[in-house]
Design brief:
The chain has 24 helices and 44 strands. The protein is an alpha/beta fold. Strands 11, 12, 13, 18, 19 and 20 form a 6-stranded parallel beta sheet that branches. Strands 22, 25, 26, 29, 41 and 42 form a 6-stranded mixed beta sheet that branches. Helix 5 runs parallel beside helix 7, helix 7 runs parallel beside helix 9 and helix 14 runs parallel beside helix 15. The longest helix has 18 residues. It comes from Limihaloglobus sulfuriphilus.
Length: 998
């Protein structure tokens, strides 16, 4: 009886599992180009149903890849090429719709129907059905029983025979009470359908409210719409993510052309309602991804019969989204369609396992060698030009036009290219980033496009935030951007765009500089380049450059006009266009220097008086994702010095780490300074050089998810001055005696520290002015900062005089604000005296301070006298000056997530019965279900008993009977039995294996 029961269990288990077994991951490719000759209705139905099943199949692993055009085949080839994210994977071809349905229709629980025609139905039902179907693990279809595709999925006996679980056709009339809700109609059937979605799927938590898909609705069935522009192929991502799908006008002042009888402003109010309800579900704490762009050729613009131009509609949409903690990931016409983003998104774990880093920025000596800095340390007169290569704030343009076309231009690698894809698009097209970073030349650099990790208007993140009135959202935005900037080693925001939302200001720079520490490009609103917290800011020059207009005359610069920095926005140009521009300059004899973004901003920061120190690139580590509680784990970390300072143990450079509960805000106190790791005694790490650290990580005692941070620190006094002791003579200092004042300034060997000091000998000081002050590296400050200032001094000649220190304040443009502090000291001739004072910024417009030394008499008037000055120091009183973190210089610390558990073998991310640790040990994918079920690795846990009752390195029915008996008697868990059964049933039994050693 027991044996019969065991057999029955095995039969039931076999019936429960499907044919998804695989020893290695397989990509199921279906080429849909055969349908190009089908009728429009059939193509529409085929594409919508195909991407629905694709999204369902790709939810927990990348399985289905659809080919709509040759560009899709290109990316499939790149996935499986050597070094690709799917290298070595199998490809199985699906030949027709019957095979596709037989293989994947079992994943769908049924069908959600929507109105069949834009002429007779409600156009919004196609997108509402998409969201509802995604939430219910279904596909969406037009309610057209005569359609051949409908028949294949619903009615044909040889088809899928999926049940109809929801029918939205004919349900929304624009009057009375909205179907299945208690809400009164909006007066628009189109908007009523969206309110139904809000009430039944958004408010109930059935949809992912951090993902919005904004694509063409059933309007795409109209003959005037190009079939590609229906954007049906975009929807596989919506099905995978259970996204909120809609298309509405952002304008409150006109009725939309796709619903001309609705009450004025109904689209706009419904738009706001959806965004607001999504934020409520998100607890107002997450940024929302909005995939889409106004389909300006067909809707809501002057081109489609409205009163607003296309660009104005774009700006209005972004203004609206930004107020609701939402960023646009555009899909603009020209190329508003994209395929297989559910597949690429399912590869995100593979992407995250790789480390993507930029090329090293230039060193000081490299800029000297290029002729950009002269032997005296001055920037050489030239027109320094950076071409921002956009517009890649959208996934389709980045995948197909940048990575799939421009990046293959033979001129790439010959000219400096500053590519500007917004890194948030990696959620949907990580394959493009992987390809570009794997194949980058030493002249390829990457910067963020508009406006960071997504298209927002920065001023809409705080303040009034019309029309939402939400609280300040800048911290949410910062965390969002930091995540994506870390992924691809970004530290420059190339274009800060705020169109339609007023002027940008230094307040907006403050939002960005924490993750854009190497530069920020303003769209406008800056008269001259400035430093803000040692970050260089510069306004865009115009006009924009296109492939057919990129020429010298468009740049508007003049040769031989001093030191100039300019950056231009170029749209979809090729490297060859840039090469042609350079050659035109050479032919004309112009002194234009075309440089990459990092050369541009490093040189600009230096020219403005900032410093390029305290920059680090996090190159790699061997830290496992899963660690045991209370464990002390030795790990290796590799970093690169991207700054101009030389790291050494003697100068106090070290690595520190912090482990905090997942999502908890990091503070300086979280770093364990006692566990800091120093460089070797003789190690000196210059610009571009590598440092390797061996770190002992102490794991928490309690299970949970934790965030691990690394930062570099300079464990010494955080002096904000360069050359503070004059060891480089007068570098970064200025001397003058003018308008009747006379004197000499020289370097003396009579020093308090090091080998040198300054001798300031003023022979006539009652007239005019004299000073030793800072020439370069003015100190960047903010209102409310307080500083400690100190220096060593002694009199070089007798006299009733004092040495005066003056601290002066300047605005962002370098204008003196008539705010200062004067401090007089009276050292003697016998020995150096340390002089100290405190200074707090007085003017809210202050962005820089300078310090100067003068000789005064006891009444405070300038006079003749002679003093030695050495060891000048300015430190921030608000900082712990014993330890200066690189993150305080806007260099992002490294962050990774750890899963800390009592037993590392208990973690099985993909639920395939094999722990992550075992899979990783055998080169398998811990995030891909069943990739290691068959073969030695899967059977290692299946061999429990042989004929003699002990493991025998042979998996057969003895093992199943043994574990089934234990389960039935209560001595083994059901999960153990089902795991073994799945492994045995999905594979060829019996099979000899390696004996399990543990």
């Amino acid at each position: 009886m027991l044996k019969k029961y065991q057999v029955l269990i095995l039969i039931l288990l076999f019936a429960a599992v499907t044919g998804l077994s695989q020893q290695r991951p397989t990509i199921y490719k279906w080429d849909l180009r055969f349908a190009n000759t089908w009728s429009r209705d059939l193509q529409y139905d085929l594409f919508h149903s195909a991407v629905a099943l694709q999204g369902l199949a790709n939810r927990d692993a990348p399985r289905v890849f659809l080919v709509f055009e040759e560009d899709d085949q290109l990316w499939l080839d790149r996935l499986v090429e050597p070094g690709g994210l799917c290298e070595g994977w199998n490809i199985e071809t699906i030949n027709n719709i019957s095979e596709y349905i037989n293989m994947f229709a079992g994943l769908a629980q049924g069908v959600v129907l929507y109105d069949s025609s834009p002429e007779t139905g409600v156009i919004s039902t196609s997108l509402v059905a998409t969201s509802a179907a995604a939430a219910r693990d279904c596909i969406a279809l037009r309610n057209d029983p005569d359609s051949g595709v409908y028949k294949m999925f619903v009615t044909n006996s040889s088809g899928a025979r999926l049940p109809i679980v929801l029918d939205l056709s004919g349900k929304f009339t624009g009057s009375g009470t909205i179907w299945q809700t208690s809400r009164e109609s909006t007066g628009s059937a189109k908007c009523d359908a969206y309110i139904w979605l809000v009430e039944n799927y958004i408010k109930t938590g059935l949809l992912d409210t951090t993902n919005i898909s904004y694509t063409l609705d059933l309007w795409g069935m109209k003959d005037e719409v190009a079939l590609d522009h229906t954007q049906l192929r975009n929807l596989d991502y919506a099905f995978k993510k259970k996204a909120v799908c809609f298309e509405l006008s952002p304008w409150p002042d006109e009725v939309p052309n796709d619903d001309p009888t609705q009450p004025l402003g109904t689209d706009f109010e419904t738009f706001k309602t959806i965004l607001d309800e999504c934020n409520i579900q998100n607890n107002y704490s997450e940024m929302i991804k909005f995939c889409g762009f106004t389909n300006w050729a067909y809707k809501y613009t002057a081109r489609a019969g409205g009163s607003h131009e296309g660009v104005s509609t774009e700006w209005q949409t972004v203004r609206l989204l930004s107020a609701y903690n939402t960023y646009m990931e555009a899909e603009a016409l020209g190329r508003n369609f994209i395929s297989n983003t559910s597949f690429y998104n399912a590869l995100k774990p593979a992407l995250m396992q790789r480390r993507y880093i930029q090329n090293p920025p230039p060193s000081y000596q490299e800029l000297v060698d290029k002729g950009f800095i002269d032997s005296s340390g001055n920037v050489v007169e030239n027109n320094y030009v950076m071409i921002y290569m956009g517009d890649y704030d959208q996934a389709a343009w980045t995948l197909y036009w940048l990575a799939g076309d421009r990046y293959d231009d033979p001129a790439r690698g010959v000219v400096p290219c500053s590519w500007a894809p917004t890194p948030n698009t990696s959620d949907r097209i990580g394959v493009a980033y992987d390809y570009m970073y794997r194949n980058k030349s030493d002249k390829d650099y990457f910067i963020a496009g508009d406006s960071g990790a997504g298209y927002v208007n920065p001023t809409q993140l705080y303040g009034i935030r019309w029309p939402s009135g939400y609280p300040d959202g800048r911290d949410i935005w910062k965390k969002h951007c930091q995540k994506y900037y870390r992924m691809f080693d970004y530290s420059i925001t190339g274009w800060l765009l705020n169109s339609g939302s007023g002027d940008l200001s230094l307040t907006d720079a403050d939002t960005y500089k924490q993750f854009s520490g190497d530069g920020i490009g303003f769209n406008r609103d800056l008269d001259d380049p400035v430093l803000s917290g040692n970050v260089a800011l510069i306004e865009r020059n115009g006009p924009d450059l296109y492939r057919d207009t990129i020429e010298i005359s468009k740049l508007g610069l003049q040769s031989g006009s001093g030191v100039n920095f300019s950056w231009y926005r170029a749209i979809n140009i090729y490297p060859q266009n840039l090469k042609d521009l350079e050659e035109e300059c050479l032919e004309l004899g112009y002194d234009y220097k075309f440089v990459d973004a990092y050369t541009f901003y490093y040189l600009l920061r230096y020219y403005l008086g900032g410093n390029n120190n305290h920059r680090v690139c996090w190159r790699g580590d061997d830290i496992p994702d899963i660690l045991e509680t209370s464990q002390s784990r030795q790990v290796q970390l590799t970093v690169r010095n991207d700054g101009w300072d030389i790291w050494s143990r003697q100068d106090g450079y070290s690595l520190v780490y912090a482990i905090v509960p997942g999502g908890q805000e990091l503070t300086a106190d979280d770093y364990n300074l006692d566990k800091r790791v120093s460089l070797g005694d003789s190690e000196a790490v210059s610009t571009g050089q590598i440092a390797n650290f061996e770190v002992s990580l102490d794991m928490p005692e309690i299970e949970g998810e934790y965030d691990l941070y690394f930062d570099m620190i300079k464990f010494a006094d955080a002096n904000l001055l360069t050359n503070p002791s004059f060891e480089s003579d007068f570098a970064d200092w200025r001397t003058f005696a003018v308008s009747g004042s006379e004197g000499e300034f020289s370097i003396s060997g009579d020093s308090s520290d090091g080998d040198k000091a300054v001798l300031m000998n003023i022979t006539s000081g009652s007239q005019g002015d004299h000073a030793l002050d800072r020439d370069r590296n003015r100190i960047a400050v903010e209102y409310g900062n307080a500083f400690s200032v100190s220096f060593d001094s002694k009199k070089a000649a007798a006299g009733e005089t004092k040495i005066r220190l003056t601290v002066s304040e300047f605005n962002a443009n370098g204008d003196y604000l008539a705010k200062y502090g004067a401090f007089d000291f009276d050292p003697d001739q016998s020995q150096y005296m340390q002089c100290n004072c405190e200074y707090e910024i007085q003017d809210e417009n202050t962005k820089y301070i300078n310090i100067g030394f003068r000789v005064v008499n006891y009444n405070g008037a300038k006079t003749a006298g002679s003093y030695l000055i050495d060891s000048v120091s300015i430190t921030d009183s608000d900082l712990d000056n014993s330890c200066l973190a690189f993150s305080s210089y806007n260099n992002l610390p490294w962050k990774t997530t750890l899963q800390v558990v009592d037993d590392v073998y208990s973690v099985d991310t993909d639920n395939d019965g094999i722990s992550d640790v075992v899979e990783l040990e055998h080169g398998l994918l811990s995030w891909y279900p069943q990739d290691g079920v068959c073969g030695d690795v899967g059977y290692l846990q299946a061999d429990t008993s042989g004929d003699a009752g002990v493991p025998d390195c042979y998996v057969d029915v003895n093992d199943l009977i043994d574990l089934a008996s234990m389960w039935l008697t209560g001595s083994a868990g059901y999960d153990d039995f089902t795991v073994l059964a799945r492994q045995w049933l999905w594979c060829n039994d019996p099979q000899a294996i390696e004996c399990w050693q543990n």
